[in-house]
Design a protein that fits this description.
The protein is mostly helical. The chain has helices at residues 2-29, 32-62, 67-79, 84-92, 98-129.
Length: 130
């Protein structure tokens, strides 16, 4: 494993860093759309994840998951993968404005989940899981 460690582990972090820098540069180049859609972007970046996370907690509870398991399912349903989703949107919808979907995922939803979402879904899982 030591012989290939640099290729698989170290190279991954380098490629991830370059990918994230490319995403940031793309957002800055196309940031004009943020002025036009800023408030709606905030609403969508918070309301849609709240709905998805609540459904995740309810489905986790219905499936018999523990309170922690239902909370984690809610958080995962809320996050929609901050790295994979923007890459998938970039490929599937090449005409979509990256400044909008990247800012919604990484600039609005991600910090919201860290500050509010995780504690909220844990509380909700406790409330419905009793």
């Amino acid at each position: 494993m030591e012989l290939v460690d640099h290729f698989f582990n170290d190279l991954f972090f380098g490629a991830l860093t370059l990918f994230l820098i490319d995403l940031g540069v793309t957002v800055v180049r196309r940031a004009t759309g943020l002025r036009q859609y800023g408030s709606r972007l905030l609403v969508v970046g918070i309301v849609v994840p709240l709905i998805n996370g609540s459904l995740g907690v309810l489905l986790g509870n219905a499936a018999g998951l523990s309170i922690g398991g239902a909370a984690v399912l809610g958080v995962v349903a809320t996050s929609a993968s901050y790295i994979a989703a923007p890459a998938a949107v970039r490929i599937a919808l090449p005409d979509a404005d990256p400044a909008l979907y990247l800012t919604a995922a990484l600039g609005v939803t991600f910090p919201f989940n860290l500050i509010v979402g995780i504690p909220l879904f844990h509380w909700f899982a406790q409330a419905v899981g009793g």
